[in-house]
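Sample 3 of the quickstart, ligand zinc ion:
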Amino acid sequence: MIQIVPAPKKTTFFQRDYAYNGETVRTSIDILLGEEEYILEVTSEDGITIIGGSEKAVFYGECTLEQILLQNKKRIRAMKIEDEPVFRYRGFMIDCARHFFTVDELKAIIDTMARLKFNYFHWHLTDDQGFRMQIDALDKLHKEGSVRLGSHFGGTHSNSKYEGYYTTQQMQEIVQFCAERYIEVVPEIDVPGHATAMIHAYPEMSCRGRKVPVETRQGIFKNILCAGSETTYEYLCKILDEMCRIFPGEYFHLGGDEVPKENWEHCSACKNAMKENGLESYEQLQAWLMNRLAAYLQQKGKKVICWNDALKGENLSKNFIAERWMDRKNLTLYWANSGRKVIMGDFYHTYFDYPYAMTPLKKVYRYSPYLKNMDIRGKESIEGLECCVWTEHISSNAAIEYMLFPRAAAVAQTAWGCGRENYAYFESALKAFKPIFKRNRINCAPQKDWNPLPHKRLGGVVKLLVTTLKGLSYQPKA
Ligand SMILES: [Zn+2]
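Result:
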């Protein structure tokens, strides 16, 4: 039995062995195959061949072969693997705003993700607690917006300065590193909420125009960008211009989650914008802001993604791809059923900032991206799925790797293979994947932590609630 993560679509074994002596694997491209489809053959006559629909598909064949060779050093059972993914978008998101991870730390994660056949790295680069990319046209963003005077997240309380941003060169290095592994970087600038760090650097982007400190706590904050001010758009377009130069990929994420609208209610510029554009609610005002930015990005050939919160504005452009994370009103379902694109994920299944006690491996493995009442059109509207790791509670590289692995492998299985019926196989295949974790020095969670027993689960969830409440109730000194 050959164990591969994610499991291939179809494997046929033959009654012969093939003696492998480390000779070259023959690869070729057949454009009649799908862009990510490959056929891997091990035969006693012809050795090992990989035929892919593109160079990317050949790479996936090589990733599969790597796992086979790790399990069979000399003699390989003759076989034919015919494989292609179910979903074209297989993403992982890392929040580098709450905590900063170095280029080398990211590379180890990215390389491991590539072996699991992920193909999109959604890079969350801005938030209330830090703006983490160099923007030359508005350099206070990275010079001042990347520094906060303490960190009071979850169980962590520190009054030490915390800072860090990626230089243009470092971001280009990540883009290149990803491209070599057929991963596209999807950059995110989160607007109009989660923007405290931006407003700290340029208060004129907010309704009140007042300087605010970069946030040191976790939560949802009312300092949001002013939707009625032309300065906001002018600045944002400058940022988007630079981001588009650094990130050449097809997708772009504009955020749009958790936007408390109080400041807009008291802002004459915001009210004027509503009046002039016939907008009936603040949700529509948010959608109008996001539509303007999306139109700007679409001129540059981008496909624009937003978190599902932005769907509350009925006027949101139909071209947006909605990323689902928490959606009590089920707006993503209607969005998909009406033929608009969605990326699936779920707070309770694919958010890996939460402990194994809350989200055990088996639960992730069983996650279905198909919502109840999703019709055929809705299912066809799913671009793919994504797992996310937010880092309010995660301050070290060892911790983020522990939270991501092996749970990301379960998402890879669903995104690539959509097979969720054989957990025992999946677990044993994970053991075979271990040398790849080891090679990349990944701090994968040990098997005993993957599926905690019920009493440990309860204890873990209570602990999480206590530390979260402690963090949320922290009051900074005036
Ligand atoms: Zn305003």
